[in-house]
Design goal:
Elements lengths: L4 E9 L4 E9 L2 E6 L9 E4 L4 E4 L1 E3 L7 E2 L2 E2 L4 H10 L2 E9 L6 H13 L5 E7 L5 H14 L3 E5 L10 H13 L3 E5 L3 H13 L6 H5 L3 H18 L3 E3 L5 H12 L4 E5 L1 H5 L24 H12 L5 E2 L39 H11 L5 H15 L17 E11 L18 E11 L2 E5 L2 E2 L18
Parallel strand pairs: 1-4, 1-5, 6-9, 9-10, 10-11, 11-12, 12-13, 13-14, 14-15
Antiparallel strand pairs: 1-2, 2-3, 5-16, 7-8, 16-17, 17-18, 18-19
Helix pairs in contact: 3-4, 4-7, 7-8, 8-10
The structure holds N-(aminocarbonyl)-beta-alanine and zinc ion (ZN) (2 copies).
């Protein structure tokens, strides 16, 4: 553990506050907050005048070393968490996948074994549950009570691979909700989408743009509505991952107005890009093959409105990187896998390192989000909804000293080769953004200092999570 550090005269911004103060970090936590604090010579002092002091980002939707069919996401826990740190994120929640072969508890243990040697920031896991029976429900209860895993992702898409049926989702909602946890749902009508994919391929439509054309917003809306009704019947909270369209959003807004505890995230790519990228047959478009696909500018308008008025509560990355070039750093069966058949392109895009800075630029600087709301969406509310708060997600006495010093006046131009992900592209290539992460502290230890990496593989810890704090 590093010695005490005082961040002097920074502008401290949390979800609710905005003030100039000194922040003393000691023994891994925020020890004191005050003005003109006198400290001994053993305390390292950092002058943060003119800079923001933010709680470390909490990204509750990332995929590292995730197996998707025959492909694997091209970030290890080591490269992905280092990239996250450079982007100002100090806690991630990744996934443990229940497979046909192993149990919920086996999946969690397997992911932990791989992560613990590699992570350089703190992490937790959602468990993806693909089938439900008595034993699975018992394991889920055990994971919540004894393993600190209190959220479970289920898919209404990808039939035959990860899709769970409505009864399975309902059973999970009922039990997990009653136990104080959260079911996170990937809402798309998988069987209809698979039919549309089959028909497109039979008609000879093989280029990446057909990924988007076969996953209509209406089928995201239908599944979202169905998920809400299942949660309502189960009397459980529900969380929708990667909401991309107004078709989905309108059901979320209505349900929230009815008092149903529905929560949802969107991702930076749905705010940064629209479906005009699919207006061609080039394979370059495979960069934008993520699920759900990018939607219209009108959908973007609705996403911003929902972010401002709290119908969307979280912005997570869904960082799910696959390389465009085959064999980059030895990764095989990446995007090129689908060069003759769009349905074989592994779904997902990178974004873990650019989340805060891109949202600061297009959200805060362009007047879409207040600074407090920016912090709330990227750190505080994800921490609350997934049982990490107040250890994570804020700057307060006693909270972990996960702190970002952010320069709002700096600019940077994004290039994939300067980022720390293994991925060989970024959707933001060449884009100049306002704002820059200057320093990052994990539990009081400086791990990013400008361009310099001071973190270490294995220094991150698994964070056992508690109950959902939805209200
Ligand atoms: O395209 C995406 N989002 N890939 C990751 C898997 C998922 O559905 O989150
Ligand atoms: Zn998903
Ligand atoms: Zn995902």
């Amino acid at each position: 553990m590093s010695g005490p550090t005082l961040i002097r005269n920074g502008r401290v911004i949390t979800a609710t506050d905005d003030y100039i103060a000194d922040v003393l970090m000691q023994d891994g936590v925020i020890h004191a907050i005050g003005r003109d604090m006198a400290v001994g010579e053993d305390v390292k002092v950092i002058d943060a005048r003119g800079l923001y002091v933010l709680p470390g980002g909490v990204d509750t939707h990332v995929h590292m070393e995730n197996v998707v069919g025959p492909s694997i996401t091209c970030d290890t826990f080591a490269s992905g968490t280092k990239a996250a740190a450079f982007g100002g994120t100090t806690t991630v929640v990744d996934f443990a996948l229940q497979t046909a072969q192993d149990s919920v508890l086996g999946a969690i243990a397997r992911a932990q074994r791989s992560a613990e040697r590699q992570v350089s920031i703190d992490y937790s896991l959602h468990c993806i549950v693909t089938r439900v029976d008595k034993q699975v429900l018992a394991d889920v209860r055990h994971a919540m009570r004894h393993e600190g895993v209190t959220s479970f992702k289920m898919f209404m898409a990808y039939p035959g691979v990860m899709m769970a049926d409505d009864a399975a989702i309902f059973q999970m909602l009922r039990q997990v909700g009653a136990d104080g946890g959260m079911v996170a749902l990937h809402a798309e009508n998988g069987t209809v989408i698979d039919l549309l994919i089959k028909e497109a391929l039979e008609a000879g439509h093989t280029s990446p743009r057909y990924h988007a054309l076969t996953r209509p917003a209406l089928m995201e809306g239908e599944a979202t509505h169905r998920g809400i009704r299942l949660a309502e019947l189960a009397e459980a909270p529900i969380y929708f991952v990667h909401v991309s369209s107004n078709e989905a959003l309108k059901h979320i807004v209505t349900a929230r107005d009815e008092g149903i505890p529905v929560f949802a995230e969107t991702c930076p790519h749905y705010l940064l890009f629209d479906d005009s990228v699919y207006d061609n047959d080039s394979f370059e478009t495979a960069k934008y093959v993520m699920t759900p696909p990018l939607r219209t500018r009108d959908d973007q308008k609705h996403l911003w409105r929902a972010l401002r008025y709290d119908d969307l509560q979280v912005i997570a990355t869904d960082h799910c990187p696959f390389c465009m070039k085959e064999n980059h750093l030895g990764y095989q069966l990446q995007k090129q896998r689908g060069k003759d058949d769009f349905s074989q392109i592994p779904n997902g895009a990178p974004g873990i390192e650019t989340r805060l800075v891109s949202l600061f630029d297009i959200g805060v600087m362009q007047g879409q989000l207040s600074l407090n709301r920016f912090v709330q969406l990227t750190s505080t509310t994800p921490a609350k909804l997934f049982g990490l708060f107040p250890k994570k997600g804020t700057i307060a006495v006693g909270s972990d000293a996960d702190v970002v010093i952010f320069d709002p006046n700096a600019t940077q131009t994004i290039h994939a080769h300067e980022l720390h992900s293994h991925c060989d592209y970024t959707l933001l290539e060449g884009r100049t953004l306002r704002g820059k992460v200057e320093k990052v502290f994990l539990r009081g230890e400086l791990i990013v200092d400008g361009p310099t990496w001071l973190g270490r593989e294995g220094m991150g810890r698994f964070v056992p999570r508690g109950e959902v704090r939805a209200f």
